[in-house]
Write a structure and sequence with these properties.
The chain has strands at residues 20-30, 33-34, 40-45, 50-55, 61-65, 72-73, 79-83, 99-107, 111-119, 124-130, 133-137. The chain is mainly beta. It has one domain.
Length: 138
């Protein structure tokens, strides 16, 4: 799924058959308030590969091979906190589960717009870009 600005990224179907062994997320924290949803999610699988799911400035959904970055301070704009136990999101209930299927959806103008990851227990998580933010739903 080629995004004109960010390229094709990683083929997320490589996750099929792999177990999610760790989940890391980043959150924006400003004046003591944390963002409602994570900015990025990294799925670290049983092969040790890390898949980052995030949004692009053009409304695309970025899926790429990338290791989690460190937390960092942005001065008056707050801080980006990165870690495994920082907040709740739908992927957390699938820690230790095996990915059974992956579906992608795209439009020509922005590339990938939605990613759905299904697990062996019948559960799924859908990631999309909604008003510029990463949205994760069951």
């Amino acid at each position: 799924m080629l995004c004109p600005r960010h390229g094709a990224g990683t083929d997320p179907t490589r996750l099929v058959g792999r177990t999610i062994s760790r989940i890391v997320a980043s959150w924006h924290v400003c004046e003591g308030e944390r963002s409602e949803a994570p900015l990025d999610v990294w799925l670290i699988d049983s092969e040790g590969d890390s898949t980052r799911i995030s949004t692009g400035s053009d409304g695309c959904l970025i899926v790429e091979s990338a290791a989690p970055h460190a937390s960092h301070d942005m001065g008056e704009w707050g801080r980006i906190e990165v870690g495994e136990d920082l907040g709740d999101h739908p992927f957390l209930r699938h820690l230790g589960d095996t990915v059974a299927r992956v579906s992608e959806f795209a439009v020509p103008e922005t590339g990938r717009t939605q990613l759905e990851i299904g697990f062996g227990d019948g559960g799924r998580v859908r990631a999309d870009c909604w008003q510029g933010d990463l949205r994760l739903t069951r």
